[in-house]
Amino acid sequence: MFKILINVPKLRQLSFDNAVIKFCFPTQYCMISTSKMNYEKAEENLQSNPYYNKYAHKIADLQKTSPEEFLARLKENENRKTPKTSNKHIATPLAGHAGTAKSGSTVFTKPKLLNDVMKTELISGKSADEIKDIWLEYHKHKDCIAASVPSSNFDLLQSRGEKFPLFLLPLPRDQGYEFILCQFSGNEVHFTPLISYQTHKENAPECLTMVYYTDIKESKGIVLMKGEFNKDVLTALEAQCLANELQLYYGEENEKRTLLLERFTNNPDDFRHMDLIANLETLSLK
Fold first, then answer.
1. Alpha-carbon distance 129 to 222, whole Å?
2. 43-78 pLDDT, tens digit each
3. Nearest-CA neighbor of 224 among 133, 123, 149, 138?
4. For residue 237, what are the contacts with CB-CB under 8 A and spacing of at least 6?
5. Cα 130 from Cα 84, distance rounded (Å)
6. pLDDT digits (tens, 9 = 90+) for 168-212
7. DSSP symbol at 187
8. 111 Rama sector, left if φ>0, alpha if ψ -120 to 50, beta otherwise
């Protein structure tokens, strides 16, 4: 589920013929905490109290004879006036940066392990190709997509995901294209329709979640991917299409597509959604 944070960057707009869809991207998670008490300020506030003059001499005596008690009472007085706050993390799967995004993707959940979905001891003696065949065959008749990604390709995809954590992908539909918002979060990539995010904000449901299992990356040289999708929103073919587009933008070196990623992230005012469609249609013609 997607959540919205404070300090949201300015809105950007995409024009779809006569309709205009506005969308905003939340910043990285932040921490809210109380600061240390300023005793000089507290004493100044005490002196502004209308009853201060009446008890000034008693306050002065206490300050001289027992400064520790004086400070303790100051603190107690300030605590009564200051709303209590607690250290609180506010985070979101859509915690990527728009406009001036520089830091990497943020991990909000515990990394998923390959052992949670298969018995890894059974593949320890297998080759990378054998593991790939087992992985694909296992998911062949399930409502998900799967892939085996070479380690070098995954390294590129992950590094670009850290640099460009948020992006739009055009999904071909019967009546045109629908834009899907995707965001990297650790070894996961989350997808939701742009119109759904615009409508539901923090309640926007994910239509596709891709998880990359890196458990055997070093030993076998591959990373296994599994993508689960909402069948009410996407077909298996559409989910695969999004995975393929993600690979094209993040898993390959391409000057034109890299320029679109950079423009979307660093110069949103210059970004044009039609460039994404043009790029996709160019691929379709090849």
1. 9
2. 565 566 555 565 556 656 655 565 556 556 665 665
3. 149
4. none
5. 58
6. 999 998 889 999 999 999 999 999 999 998 888 768 899 999 999
7. T
8. beta
- Cβ–Cβ < 8 Å for 78, 42: yes
Residues, the chain, total? Answer: 286
Measured CA angle at 16 (ends 14, 20), to 5 deg: 55
Interatomic CA distance for residues 226 and 82, integer angstroms: 49
Non-local CB neighbours of 265 within 8 Å, separated by 6+ positions: 97, 98, 99, 101, 163, 164, 166, 167
Residue with tokens 């390294």: 155
Residue 71's CB: how many other CB atoms inside 10 A?
15
Of 235, 183, 232, the closest CA to residue 209 belongs to: 183
Nearest residue to 23 (alpha-carbon basis) of 41, 2, 43:
2
Roughly how many angstroms between the first and final C-alpha of the chain, as a whole number? 37
Question: 253 — alpha (psi -120 to 50), left (phi > 0) or beta?
Answer: beta
Rounded to an integer, what distance in angstroms lies between the CA atom of residue 79 and that of residue 238? Answer: 56
Q: Is 207:191 a contact under the CB 8 Å cutoff?
A: yes
Residue 283's pLDDT band (cuts 50, 70, 90):
confident
The Cα–Cα gap between 129 and 221 comes to 10
Total-model pTM: 0.64
Rounded to 5°, the CA angle 41-46-52 comes to 155
- Closest to 223 in 3D by CA, of 133, 149, 124, 126: 149
